[in-house]
Amino acid sequence: MLGQRQKYVGYRNYVAQGVDEDISRFYNRGNYLTVLGDKAFKESVREETKEQNIEQLRKVLEDRPGGQRILELVAVIFKVKSRDIKSCPGGKRVSNPARAFAMYACQRYGAMSLKQIAVLFNLSHSGSVSFSVNKVKRELVEGQWLSEVKQLERGLYIVK
């Protein structure tokens, strides 16, 4: 479809065409994990996947690491124990870059909510999580954390 010699030009032209009416209508109805194609193709796919467990398929397609896995990788990157990242020191706020980065990573790569992250890090509310995550995001824009992000993505098998 995109040609052999000028595949990038072909792809750019394809994307520039935008979304046609059928595709727009399809996705605006909330259809996901559905097959697009003619009637015969759809029927052949339906027959092939008749025995498929939809919940199992959704989990495979989501393929997000859990908070514990992210904690373990961040601990390796920062050369600390995961319990030192997870634990919350009492009293005055103490800077813990590994902890802040792990919270950011849980949200970014684990698709965890602030509340879920607060529970994982033994916090009573999500405000502290939000503060730490936003701090790391600002620092990322400034060029910090690049090495840590690269190591984490390599550990999570993320290819860009």
TrEMBL record:
- Tell me the InterPro entries matching this sequence: DnaA_C (IPR013159), Trp_repressor/repl_initiator (IPR010921)
**Gene3D superfamilies (UniProt xref):** 1.10.1750.10
Q: Which Pfam families match?
A: Bac_DnaA_C (PF08299)
Q: Which residues form the Chromosomal replication initiator DnaA C-terminal domain?
A: 66-136
Matches recorded under CDD domains: Bac_DnaA_C (cd06571)
Q: What is this protein called?
A: Helix-turn-helix domain-containing protein
- Output the lineage of the source organism: Bacteria, Pseudomonadati, Pseudomonadota, Gammaproteobacteria, Oceanospirillales
